[in-house]
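Protocol step 6 of 9: fold each sequence in the batch and record its structure tokens directly after the sequence line. For illustration, a two-sequence batch is reproduced in full.

Sequence one:
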Amino acid sequence: MNELLGLVFSPWTEKARWALDVRRVPYTFRHYQPLIGEPALRAKLRRLTGRVSVPVLTTDEGRVLDGSTDIARWADGRGAGPTLFPAEHEAEIARFIELSERALTAGRARALSRMLADDEALAEMAPGPVRRALGPFASRLGALGVRRTLRKYDGHTADGETHRQALVAALDELRTTLARKTLAGTGPKTLLDSFTFADITMSQVLVNVKPPAELKLGAASRRCFSDPELGEPYADLIAWRDDLYRAFRTS
């Protein structure tokens, strides 16, 4: 059986899961424990130094794929369902992937910065048994993990306004693209001629504006991932994302 290692609250993991699900590729999901699980992850990836992260898929053929895009491409060649990477749209999909990566990196930095000021959200970052054992000290452990993540992905090197501008630029481009599209049938608009990985990857940009109900977050973490400055101005895009989930996210 294919096994996906990931974080239930991560938009990168969600991109991989959505691709596997919409292509109806069977897999089991295993939750990754940061820090504790890193040695095993390095061994799996055969990467003793440098950055390692999830999602990582181990296929039933013994291949190890890391990164949501590579996992989605692999899924697109298996199962059945919408073609996620139609050949005629490769360049456009690549552009949307790059745009979403910049926006997600910026959004993560903003969300984690808010989290550092929220002890309840920091405590939620610790696994349940650890949180219960540490009590009020769980937030300190959570803060260590959040600061480590910011250092790992260079989220601490740019100021908040730079991150905000990167996120807003992606949201504005998403809105402009959708405005040029004509609604076909009763489903939501898609960025290309049909539902593709472009829709999956760009929909995740909204995680750091208002997380979808499907994303498993504690109440405090959801508060930190929600951007109070951008939620109302981009309510139309949140509604588009939610429509996309109802139409194409059945698992």
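Sequence two, same batch, same settings:
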Amino acid sequence: MSSRHPSLRVAVLLLGMLLGTSAALAQAPQASGGFELVALGVNGGLDDGNLSSYLVRAKGDTRYLALDAGSVLPGIGRALEHGAFADAGPSGAETPRGQVFRDLIAGYFISHAHLDHVQGLLIAATDDTGHKPIYGLPPTLDTLSRDYFNWTAWPNFADRGPAPALGRYRLTEAVPGQWFNIPGTSLSASVYPLWHDRLTSSMVLVRSGDAYFAYFGDTGPDALSGGQHRLADIWQVLAPLVRAHALKGMLIEASFPNDLPDAQLFGHLTPAWLQRELDALAAAAGGQAPLKGLPVLIGHIKPTLQAGRDPRALIARQLQDGNHLGVRFLLPEQGESLQMP
């Protein structure tokens, strides 16, 4: 298809996304579904032991899909302290952290290749086992291979790139809007591109039975994207799930408080911009009512070195003050487990 007709390409892609989601709804088994989410890292910078990383699994599953990997082993340690992974059973020759890291993580979704989303995976790769998939859009996987797994920045633990390719991880390209299964789990997933300043980030929609959960990598508002409208396309995908109460939750960023000028956001959201985007989702879903009570988890809050300023408390207050849709804003702490039935 000619690059001279970008609007046609966007229309075709959006139609494929909508048809794929409609087909998924029609074909999904009628089960209660639901998810468990474990927060391994929740911040968006500075604190290198607490960077964006989560584990999600379907109810009844043993193994998890990792959602980004900024801080992995430190987060597993904190989660164990909070009582997570109690159903894992005896660890045998491995430490409890080692058992979770090696045995319970079935694969990784990487939204984009910024260091605060991949650092934990890279550092711990030396002690991982198996041939786990890393799912992502082609630009993200190309960056992992070219800039990290290259025997200069780090050994090549991937299955492509400079020899020897050790193959500990299988770089698995996702086609936007196409569903794929996560081996070792009952989850399936579909990936969609996001605008994040100078690079493409992504959102993954995971499915368990007739239940869905949306995890957003870093993203800015459509109004500042130069006309890309990536979130608008995603709201069209999520709207039927919201109307059917099949979307059990979403995790999206609010990196900075509202007083940061737009010119300094660099492809991130504030509470005010997030509220505007949720309004767009409500419009796509047919009104405010379908969103009432929807769990909206907030991640990637940027810590500050400014004395007397608490961005997390400020963002939490601003979200609640502007919450005219009645969603349930939740700010997970590192190590916390959340149930989304």
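Proceed to step 7 once all outputs are recorded. Observation for sequence two: The two ends are 42 Å apart (CA to CA).
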